[in-house]
């Protein structure tokens, strides 16, 4: 099996199993004998247990054992029986099919939210449940508008074809994050919440982004998150015959590194109120500012794309992170 396919498959099973579903619920009444593959075909011997965790996730989302059987069987076939990975990757179900991108996007929302609930139960949240709900609405509204507004201006030449379908079909995470930030800040000001609401969302957002970008990778050229042509050993042909930078995989790696860095740092020092989210946003804006140079974006005559301009705007908003870094952390209190 091609090493790149093995790596991607391993990443999928790893993200779906390690530290995501923290439940001891047993899958009773489910027969796993239909999973017909040998350990020689698997990436590693623990893969069988990983498949069980993936099965649990799909039960929670789709609720049907029969659908679970079909989905898992197709996943096993794609990753362990086929020699070549085709883009976009869809899972056949009867006469129709389900895009893996859609599955990952659904899982990103579901698992990210469940992880947020898990974290909130184990901390003393200074924001009430009612205010959290209102803030969520503000964040969702801002993210929706921000992601689509930035998306439609990514390619100014296409604005002449603007309509509702074009508006809904173009969106970007950068615009969603900054739009959500604006929505949250306006909502908090309206309801009188002064403490940070974003710190609790950092790790759930990272987790959701990892799962979502896996879906973007499997969407191939349809999603538009691929990079420019490259001759590097890990460059991937997404279906058009051109080996490209897998920028969606670069982003997955970025999120994993950021997660490990933040959680490791918090073993020694504490972030001040709101600082974890600020570092989260600044780190991602810098990453996107740089990675856009190896993506086939529309660049203005001065050498920057719309997303890069938005990233710079966001970085200017967080200028205090660069000028007063000492205010981001404080010594950790030990009992």
Given the C-alpha coordinates, what overall shape results?
globular
Average of the residue pLDDT scores: 80
> Which range does the strand content fall in?
5-15%
Give Rg in angstroms.
Answer: 21 Å
Number of helices: 12
In percent, how helical is the residue content? 55-70%
Number of strands: 6
Structural class determined from secondary elements: mainly alpha
Q: How far apart are the termini?
A: 52 Å
> Order of strands side by side in the largest beta sheet?
1-2
Poorly predicted regions are: 1-52, 79-84
Element-by-element helix/strand order: HHHEEHHHHHEEHEHHHE
How does the major sheet shape up? 2 strands, antiparallel
Write a concise keyword list for the protein shown above.
335 residues; mainly alpha; two-stranded antiparallel ribbon; two-stranded antiparallel sheet; 12 helices; 6 strands; disordered N terminus
Topology at a glance:
Layout (H helix, E strand, L loop, with lengths): L2 H15 L29 H16 L2 H16 L9 E4 L2 E4 H22 L7 H24 L11 H6 L3 H19 L10 H18 L16 E2 L5 E2 L2 H19 L3 E3 L3 H17 L14 H12 L1 H5 L5 E3 L4
Antiparallel strand pairs: 1-2, 3-4, 5-6
Helix pairs in contact: 1-2, 1-8, 2-3, 4-8, 5-7, 8-9, 9-10, 10-11
Plain-language structure description:
This protein is mainly α. It has a domain at 1-85. The chain contains 12 helices and 6 strands. The protein has helices at residues 3-17, 47-62, 65-80, 100-121, 129-152, 164-169, 173-191, 202-219, 247-265, 275-291, 306-317, 319-323; strands at 90-93, 96-99, 236-237, 243-244, 269-271, 329-331. A two-stranded antiparallel sheet has the order 1-2. Strands 3-4 form a two-stranded antiparallel sheet. A hairpin with a 5-residue loop joins strand 3 and strand 4. Helix 1 packs antiparallel against helix 8 and helix 4 (100-121) runs antiparallel to helix 8. The longest helix has 24 residues, at 129-152. It starts with a helix and ends with a strand. Residues 1-52 and 79-84 have low confidence and may be disordered.
């Amino acid at each position: 099996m091609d090493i790149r396919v093995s790596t991607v498959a391993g990443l999928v099973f790893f993200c779906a199993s390690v530290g995501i579903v923290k439940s001891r619920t047993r899958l009773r009444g489910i027969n796993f004998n239909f999973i017909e593959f040998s350990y020689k075909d698997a990436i590693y011997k623990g893969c069988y247990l990983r498949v069980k965790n993936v099965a649990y996730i799909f039960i929670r989302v789709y609720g049907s054992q029969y659908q679970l059987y079909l989905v898992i069987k197709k996943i096993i076939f794609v990753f362990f029986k086929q020699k070549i990975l085709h883009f976009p990757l869809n899972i056949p179900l009867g006469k129709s099919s389900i895009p893996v991108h859609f599955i990952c996007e659904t899982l990103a929302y579901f698992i990210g939210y469940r992880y947020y609930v898990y974290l909130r139960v184990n901390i003393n949240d200074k924001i009430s449940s009612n205010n959290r709900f209102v803030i969520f609405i503000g964040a969702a509204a801002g993210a929706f508008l921000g992601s689509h507004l930035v998306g439609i201006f990514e390619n100014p030449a296409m604005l002449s074809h603007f309509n509702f379908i074009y508006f809904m079909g173009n969106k970007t995470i950068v615009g969603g994050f900054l739009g959500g930030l604006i929505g949250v800040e306006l909502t908090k000001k309206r309801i009188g919440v002064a403490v940070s609401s974003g710190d609790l969302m950092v790790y759930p957002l990272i987790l959701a982004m990892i799962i979502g970008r896996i879906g973007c990778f499997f969407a191939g050229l349809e999603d538009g998150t691929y990079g420019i042509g490259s001759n590097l050993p890990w460059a991937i042909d997404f279906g058009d015959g051109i080996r490209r930078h897998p920028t969606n995989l670069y982003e997955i790696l970025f999120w994993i590194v950021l997660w490990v860095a933040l959680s490791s740092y918090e073993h020694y020092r504490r972030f001040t109120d709101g600082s974890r989210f600020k570092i989260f946003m600044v780190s991602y804006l810098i990453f996107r500012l740089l990675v856009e140079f190896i993506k086939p974006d529309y660049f203005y005559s001065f050498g920057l794309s719309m997303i890069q301009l938005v990233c710079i705007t966001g970085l200017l908003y967080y200028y205090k992170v660069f000028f007063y870094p000492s205010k981001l952390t404080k010594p950790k209190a030990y009992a």
